[in-house]
């Protein structure tokens, strides 16, 4: 259980790490909030996304552990 969470966390850090090379994610031009549902072999994870220009907050519940990621 912890190993999968750690792996997903490390993957998230690698993708959003400052100074990462590549095209990156598209920039948000409008503000929005949305519910996020992610289905994997390990289960279904639910959360919320709040975005504004050049900012995003993602909240995900994974097996009773809450993960919050803020991107600027």
Give structural attributes.
72 residues, alpha+beta, 47% strand
Produce the secondary structure layout.
Elements: H1 2-16, E1 32-40, E2 43-52, E3 55-62, E4 65-71
Structure characterization notes:
The chain is of the alpha+beta class. It has a domain at 27-72. The protein is built from 1 helix and 4 strands; from the N terminus they run αββββ. It is globular, with a radius of gyration of 13 Å. The N and C termini lie far apart (29 Å).
What's the helical proportion of residues?
10-25%
Tell me what portion of residues adopts beta-strand conformation: over 45%
Q: Major beta sheet, specifics? A: 4 strands, antiparallel
How many helix segments? 1
Element-level helix/strand string: HEEEE
Could you give the count of β-strands?
4
Q: How many angstroms does the end-to-end distance come to?
A: 29 Å
Q: Would you tell me the overall average pLDDT?
A: 76
Spatial extent as radius of gyration: 13 Å
How is the quaternary structure best described?
A: single chain
Q: Which sequence of strands runs across the widest sheet? A: 1-2-3-4
Poorly predicted segments: none
Overall geometry comes to: globular
The structure class reads alpha+beta
Short description:
This protein has one helix at residues 2-16; strands at 32-40, 43-52, 55-62, 65-71.
